[in-house]
Structure formats: C-alpha cells, structure tokens
Amino acid sequence: MLPVLQTVTMTFANVGSLGTKPGQRDAVVAILLRPMAGLKEAGCLLYEVGINDEAPDTVFVSELWVSPEAHRNSLQLDSVQAAIAEAMPLLSGVRGGNQFTVLGSPLT
After folding, report:
1. Which value, to the nearest 10 degrees, does the dihedral of the CA atoms of residues 78, 52, 100, 37 take?
2. DSSP string covering 2-50, please?
3. Least confident span in 4-8, 23-27, 70-74, 98-102
4. Which CATH architecture has domain 11-102?
5. Residue ranges of the domains in the chain?
6. pTM of this prediction?
7. Strand partners, 47
8. In this structure, are strands 11-20 and 91-102 parallel, antiparallel, or unpaired?
C-alpha cells in the first residue's frame, strides 16, 4: 500500500512523443528548443526535448506544469501558437504519451 502523501501542490506532467515526417526530426527539435515567451510565467516548471537514435522520426517531450489548467492555458500563448503552426507541417500525426499528477520525488 502506498503511503498517504501530504502535498500542498500537485505538479502536472505531460510526457509524450511526436512523430515527424521522414527526415524532419531535427527541424522539429529546433522549433521546440527556441525560447517561447511567457512559458515560464504561464506555469511551466520544466520543458525538455529529446531524441532516441532508434526512433529517427520521433521527438520526445517531457513537461512539468503547476497545474493541468496552466498547461491548457499555455496553448493560447502567441509564442506557443507560432511554434505549433511552424511544426505542424513537419509532423506525421503519430503521437504518444501520458499525462499524470506528480505525487512527489525522492530527490526533494
């Protein structure tokens, strides 16, 4: 049985993958790594972009947010909308991932 956690705030995690059209992975990574105005102020605690050479047409993204609402609201930021518009033609439409509430960490 899991211990009962006493937590004041619960962090929201969005961990996923984006399929890219063949040869477009690095272009999508470049778009996602550009500074996005307002992201931190919107409640983004972490935004990490990665690759795996065994999946040459996939980009992996790990995000931590102060809440699910902060994540949802960030999608309306001009900088995020611009990145989405630029990346969409390069994506294959294949997506994967999970969203969950972070209960804690042994690192804190």
Report:
1. -20
2. PPPP--S--EEEEEEEEEE-TT-HHHHHHHHHS--TTTTTTTEEEEEEE
3. 4-8
4. 2-Layer Sandwich (3.30)
5. 11-102
6. 0.86
7. 63
8. antiparallel
